[in-house]
TrEMBL record:
Keyword list, A-Z: Membrane, Transmembrane, Transmembrane helix
Name of the protein in question: Phosphoesterase PA-phosphatase
Annotated transmembrane regions: 31-56, 63-86, 106-127, 139-158, 164-181
Annotated Phosphatidic acid phosphatase type 2/haloperoxidase domain residues: 63-179
InterPro entries in alphabetical order: PAP2/HPO (IPR000326), PAP2/HPO_sf (IPR036938)
Lineage: Archaea, Methanobacteriati, Methanobacteriota, Methanomada group, Methanobacteria
Length: 193
């Protein structure tokens, strides 16, 4: 029974992958999705945190430090899971798909999605902006962007939908876990300075 459930979920995963990768194909997405995808690297988010640390004042330093800790934790957790599960990427396992970006290694979970959700939650919860006279939290547009990064990974042919969903959940988990010890991280950093 469990084998049948897993097989059914795998078929749904592949079906949704083909719908996004093949049926949603268009010239605009072919240009935009690789660009969106490229912002999901852990190194890009770490770079943003470094800029925030240098130019963001005391608040920026604290947010950047907490985010970097979460990103490093998320990176190592993702790499361990990729090694253990070793799920082949769609372009290795499936025929007739479109691949718009180069990737190597295992497919599950999506590291780009993990990093994007970590950054969206930790940076987004700390900042807001004015829009039509109202104060809006940055977390909402950043979460939309993180979703787009995950979607782009499927569209680009390098991840299955379940890889992306898992990546989002792992990113949320890592962010919330590190936010639980945020004060300790900041206090430890202040002791070092």
């Amino acid at each position: 029974m469990l084998d049948g459930l897993i097989a059914s979920l795998n078929q749904i995963d592949i079906l949704i992958f083909y719908i996004i990768n093949i049926n949603m194909q268009n010239q605009v997405f072919d240009v935009i999705m690789p660009l969106i995808s490229s912002v999901g690297y852990f190194s890009i988010w770490i770079g943003l945190c470094v800029l925030l640390y240098v130019f963001g004042g005391r608040k920026g330093r604290n947010v950047a430090l907490v985010c970097i800790v979460a990103l490093v934790f998320g990176y190592f957790l993702t790499e361990i899971l990729k090694y253990i599960v070793a799920r082949p990427r769609p372009y290795v396992a499936l025929n007739g798909i479109r691949v718009l970006t180069d990737m190597s290694g295992s497919s599950w979970p999506s590291g780009h999605t993990v990093a994007s959700f970590i950054g969206a939650i930790i940076i987004g919860r700390s900042y807001s902006f004015k829009f039509k006279g109202k104060r809006c939290r940055l977390i909402y547009p950043l979460l939309v962007f993180a979703f787009l990064v995950g979607f782009s990974r499927i569209y680009n042919g390098v991840h299955y939908p379940f890889d992306v969903i898992s990546g989002a959940l792992i990113g949320i988990f890592c962010a919330l876990l590190i936010l639980m010890i945020e004060k300790d991280i900041i206090k430890f950093n202040e002791m070092l300075l």
